Amino acid sequence: MLKGKTALVTGSTSGIGLGIARSLAAQGASILLNGFGDSEAAIAEVKAAGAAHGIAVDYHGADMSKPAEIEAMMTFGAERFGRIDIVVNNAGIQHVAAVEDFPPEKWDAILAINLSSAFHTTRLALPAMRAANWGRIINIASVHGLVASAQKSAYVAAKHGLVGLTKVTALETATTGITCNAICPGWVLTPLVQKQVEAKAAASGISIEAATEQLLGEKEPSMRFTTPEELGALAVFFCSEAAANVRGAAWNMDGGWAAQ
């Protein structure tokens, strides 16, 4: 379905980003990966996912908190692939603390990576998308783009902002072949979340299974994690012709979290 298209997925050397990159590759899209993880292993996984289509895969290690590095990555992508057709803004970091105890440097870093980086990739990708009259911008905004949790002021502010950026971008491209939408996951079993489960189990002296039930029971009525593969399938849908008039949506895949 995406043969001849190129997708940039930020924060894609593991977890959600890697799952989405694999799903897009399986539909024939060439992929530009980005992140601080094991790039060689990620490249191998994505190449394997798109092997039937003979896709191209490359990597750029831009620090998504630095606009100049984002610009360098976007230039590299255009030179390497001709054009970036699909942008998946997934890069993100987290820090947990009460508002009065929140380190200002952590606030600034979370806003830079979780929100401002999406602005920079979007503004740089749009001219070529407009010239082609086709493009897909998908922002990974989290259920925390829709509802709040205590101790997560910067993350919640950034993700709410990302939903707002999604809506504005959708309005500004509404009469074109470009769409912009957000995906809002709840708990996803990534390596980062697995560490949180293990820490909860160790701190409480309980099993991994009991810690998992505690974590999910606090927020997610379905009592199961969303998978990177499910999020990847939704990203593929957003790139399809069936979603050509889905614009400015903040689509929660959260097991009922935001429905409460």
Comma- or semicolon-separated keywords:
SDR_fam; 3-hydroxybutyrate dehydrogenase; 7-stranded parallel beta sheet; 8 helices; NAD(P)-bd_dom_sf; 260 residues; 3-hydroxybutyrate dehydrogenase activity; globular; 2 domains; 3-OHbutyrate_DH; Rossmann fold; alpha/beta
Question: Quick gist of this model?
Answer:
Belongs to the short-chain dehydrogenases/reductases (SDR) family. By secondary structure, the chain is an alpha/beta fold.
Across the major sheet, the strand order is 3-2-1-4-5-6-7
Determine the structural class based on helices, strands and strand pairing.
Answer: alpha/beta
From the spread of the alpha carbons, the general shape counts as globular
Q: What are the low-pLDDT stretches, counting only 5+ consecutive residues below 50?
A: none
Q: Could you name the CATH class of the largest domain?
A: Alpha Beta
Cα Rg: 18 Å
The residue fraction in helices comes out at 40-55%
CATH homologous superfamily identity of the largest domain:
NAD(P)-binding Rossmann-like Domain
- Structural domains: how many: 2
CATH topology of the largest domain: Rossmann fold
Mean pLDDT: 97
Strand content: 5-15%
The secondary-structure element order is EHEHEHEHEHEHHHE
Number of helical runs? Answer: 8
Distance from first to last alpha carbon: 36 Å
CATH architecture of the largest domain: 3-Layer(aba) Sandwich
